[in-house]
Amino acid sequence: MAERSAIEWTDATFNPWWGCVRVSPACAHCYADALARRYGYRLWGADGGRRFLSEAHWRHPIRWNREAERTGVPRRVFCASMADVFEDHRELGYWRERLWALIEQTPWLQWQLLTKRPENVAAMVPWADDWPANVWLGASIENTRFTFRADILRELPASIRFVSAEPLLGSLMTNGRRNHEPLDLAGIDWVIVGGESGPRCRPTDEEWIRELRDACAGSSTAFFVKQLGGHPNKRGKDAALVDGRLWREFPNVVRPASATKRPGSARRPAIRSETSPARSTHARQRPHEDDVGDGVPPASQAPS
């Protein structure tokens, strides 16, 4: 759990568990697996276990929701940086149901659910066609081989649908290979772009970023550049300049009312720009900017 995330496109991170399985080239240099191993956990793979967190950890979003309601400012929560909420794993059913209940209890939190498995979403969420208005659903897409994920995403009734093109490993707008389709932004409200970082990072061509920027402008899709990538300088924050400017657009959302359900007549969100919120200068540095949970206690077990 990170109450104040260093990720520029969110405010906080929440992990209902740790662990996953690699499913595409973007996973090759998975920071979450490396971080878990650093703490002594072997959680990646279909046969591996998953790490579950404390009751105190699960109470944090309830407190964040109270604070957001008191201030009148909704809070974005990225879920999950150390897992994929829609992984089909034998241990996760109970914890996923618990997450859905938590989302419904926290209408002042904008839950940013990001997955590489959008094909699993419809069968795993309990909301059918009547989703809570505070659910943002995103799909990770690294090259044109995986643009089909956006086709699945646009059919799901989340209030905000977004694409995370991080790490961006190729152009998403050109179609020069069999079974590779350019990204269709119809029904997509937001695109986040980031180059890969770390000692084995693969390069991101800035022209790929420009193509996405121009496509977003043509479709009224909000556009956000997180980092350009590289090592040791990942060229993030104020260094993430494309053609001399920072691109920090967010989709506009309506502040929550008493009901959390998505209105049937909801219209496409407008776009707003936002500077990255100030970060504490004395915050403890992490191996990666994402959430790692509240301490590293032994894994707990789900009730039978």
In summary, what is this structure?
This protein is an alpha/beta fold and 304 residues long. It has 6 helices and 11 strands. Helices cover 20% and strands 15% of the residues.
Any low-confidence stretches, pLDDT <50, length ≥5? 258-267, 275-304
Largest sheet: spatial strand order: 1-4-5-6-7-8-9
- The run of helices and strands is EEHEHEHEHEHEEHEEE
Report helical residue fraction: 10-25%
Total number of helical segments? 6
Describe the structure.
The protein has 304 residues and is α/β, with parallel strands linked by helices. It has helices at residues 31-38, 55-71, 93-105, 121-124, 148-153, 206-219, and strands spanning 12-13, 17-18, 51-52, 75-79, 109-115, 135-140, 160-165, 190-194, 222-227, 249-251, 271-273. The chain has one domain (12-273). The protein has six helices and eleven strands. The strands form three sheets. Strands 1-4-5-6-7-8-9 form a seven-stranded parallel β-sheet. Strands 2-3 form a two-stranded antiparallel ribbon. The chain has a two-stranded antiparallel ribbon with strand order 10-11. The relative contact order is 0.17. Residues 258-267 and 275-304 have low confidence and may be disordered.
Question: How would you describe this structure in keywords?
Answer:
single chain, about 300 residues, alpha/beta, two-stranded antiparallel ribbon, about 20% helix, globular, disordered C terminus
